[in-house]
């Protein structure tokens, strides 16, 4: 199984909710959400190339790749 796409959508309600959907070549998808995160859509799109082609079940590897890529962004990474 490999990640094929990462898409975001912002829903404006009591807060701006950012939904992120991960697509795989097996047809499975994953959905995550966050709120009160200005700029999150851009951050996710910047990280997308690190995720596409990777196995979504390898969470530790993906986390490490994203953490390393954002290490210059400050302690909150």
Automatic annotation (TrEMBL):
Residues 18-71 form the Mandelate racemase/muconate lactonizing enzyme N-terminal domain. Pfam families: MR_MLE_N (PF02746). It comes from the Bacteria. This is Mandelate racemase/muconate lactonizing enzyme-like protein.
